[in-house]
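Quick start: load a record and inspect it. Here is Gap junction protein:
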Amino acid sequence: MNWSGLESLLSGVNKYSTAFGRIWLSMVFVFRVLVFVVAAQRVWGDESKDFVCNTRQPGCTNVCYDHIFPISHIRLWALQLIFVTCPSLMVIAHVKYREGKDQKYVELNQGSHLYANPGKKRGGLWWTYLLSLVFKAGFDTSFLYILYRVYHGYDLPRLSKCTLEPCPNTVDCFISRPTEKKIFMLFMVISSALCIFMCICEMIYLIGKRISKLLRIRHENQRLIFAEQHELTNIAPPRSQYRRTDPTLTESQLSLHRRDKIREGSATTTL
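Running the structure step on this input writes:
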C-alpha cells in the first residue's frame, strides 16, 4: 500500500493544527506508518506460511489458523491508520469551503473579505476541529478494544491448542517468531495509546482556551456596563481644606486667622 499520497495530503493539516496536533501527526507517521511499512509488514509476512500444527489431517491447519488469527494484524492496523487519519480531512474540507466562500464574497463585494483568515479556528471550524479530535481518539480506542477482544489480550503465545474439526484430537500449533511479533504488537498498541493521549490533551487545550476567552469577554462586558451605569464623580474634598498654617505665626495671629476662616465660612453659608 502506498502511503505517500495520504502523507502529502495530511501534511497540510499542520497549518491549521495546534502544537499538540503537530506532535500527533508526527507520531502517526513516524511511529506508526513508518514502522508499519518498513518493519511490521515483513514481520507478519510469514504468519500463514510458517504456521505449523503437529498433524497431517487435511484442513486442520487452516481451521486452526483461522481460529487463532481471526483477522490479520497487518490488515487491522491498516484499517486503523486509515480510519484515524480520515477525520483530519474534515478540517481540510471545511477550510477549502471557507476559502471558496470567501473568494465568491470578494468578487461580489469589490475586494472586501468575508474571513480575515479562513484557517482560523473560529465558529464552525472550531467545532469541526474538535469533532475530528473526538473521532480520532474514538477510532483508536475502538481498534485497541477490537484487538484486545479478538486476541484475548495483547499477547501471542508460543504454543496454541486447537480442538476444532476436522482435527482428530487436541492439536498443538506453533506461531513463527512469536516474541518479535509480540514486541511489534506492543509497540503499535503503546503508540496508539500515546496518540489517544495527545488527542485528549488537545481537546482539553482547545476547550480551556475557549472558556478562558469567553470569561475574559464576559468580564470586559461587565466592566463596561458597570462604568456606564456608575459615572465617576469628584468625591475628593476641595484643596482649600488642605491649606497648611504658617508655623511662624504667633498665638494671637493664629486666633485672628481662625476667626477670619469662621467668618468666611458663615458668609458662605449665608450666601
